[in-house]
Amino acid sequence: MRQTTAVLLDHRPQGTAVAEALTLGTIDLPELTPGTALVRNQYMSVDPSTRGRMDPGEKQYTTNFEIGGPLDGSAIGVVEESLSDLLPVGATVRHRMGWREYAVVSDSAATICDLDKAPAASWLASMGQTGFTAYAGLLPVGRIQPGETVFVTGAGGAVGSMAGQFARLMGAGRVIGSAGGPEKCAWLREECGFDHVIDYRNENVRQALGDAAPDGIDLFFDNVGGWQMVDAFHNMKIHGRISMCGAVSNFGSQDQPSLAELIEIVLRRVTISGFIVRDFEDLRPEFEARVSGWLASGELVDRATIFEGIENAGAGLEGLLNGANLGKALIRLSE
Ligand SMILES: NC(=O)c1ccc[n+]([C@@H]2O[C@H](COP(=O)([O-])OP(=O)(O)OC[C@H]3O[C@@H](n4cnc5c(N)ncnc54)[C@H](OP(=O)(O)O)[C@@H]3O)[C@@H](O)[C@H]2O)c1
Prior knowledge:
The protein is α/β, with parallel strands linked by helices. The protein has two domains: about 5-125 and about 305-330, Quinone Oxidoreductase, Chain A, domain 1; about 130-280, Rossmann fold, CATH 3.40.50.720. The chain contains nine helices and 15 strands. Strand 14, helix 9 (about 315-320) and strand 15 form a beta-alpha-beta unit. It binds NADP nicotinamide-adenine-dinucleotide phosphate (NAP). NADP nicotinamide-adenine-dinucleotide phosphate binds near residues 48, 159, 160, 223 and 276.
């Protein structure tokens, strides 16, 4: 029986200290059967949802990891052996069996990625679930309109850096982001074209938002929740909209605002829409066509922070939760 090295959940972590809760181990790979292929993984995606799935409480949109079992998640790799006409040897495929070096994938759960449209890493970033989340949160959920003022939290991260750039490319009048530290803020302003970036670690976000958007925010794309979310509530336009994508601050901070803050939503008649990206699959072709066009024209910056080797997978996830990544966080597993 073939085996592979995988990242296993040793025990359930507390807060953002996740690396010590993971261990490397060897798992058996299933035999190839018709409709499956053996894939050598090249990159795997590091996502905040991976941290959520380590908790005991079941999430509504996915399953949780078992103690002693392997993690999984988005990955891209090359088909080395195949019993599927849909997954020929040599093809680059994206699938959900990451957090291991080799995987046996079913052709019903893998997609061939055209490397002429985007490099492999981008198929997990701007052209992957990350970019698609930003796209869905702005268009069908956020109903972005040309000329609007948009505010994006977690703007230096994977989804946030795409959301701010997509908003600009979709014709937003003013794009404001928030991120931790001067380096991320400078990158967003100088390379990604954000009009204004607030360093939430060093500035009063509520006041800085008031200065940057004196007429208020039309569309707020929230990745972090917590106090930054409340600071945005106080700066929403009347009848503004909030696209609620995630709350990554929940994992690290005990200091969370009270529900009483929601009165700001009432006073401003704001619409809050939570969403899960998988509900928008019908938009995938249009999304890939637009984003590959923006990549080809050089209008979109797609940057990844790459951690080398499966042994650094835990450090990569911990780094993401502590803000060490610029853009998309990836683990490189092989060439
Ligand atoms: N709804 C959906 O379908 C869907 C799909 C994918 C992802 N998501 C959500 O989208 C959000 C962003 O995901 P991502 O993949 O782009 O992750 P990411 O932004 O690449 O990484 C998380 C970022 O959040 C920031 N952060 C961490 N702790 C924070 C805190 N306490 N306060 C403020 N900022 C903090 C960090 O940047 P700083 O240096 O700025 O702190 C870090 O880089 C997450 O909430 C995720 O769960 C939702």
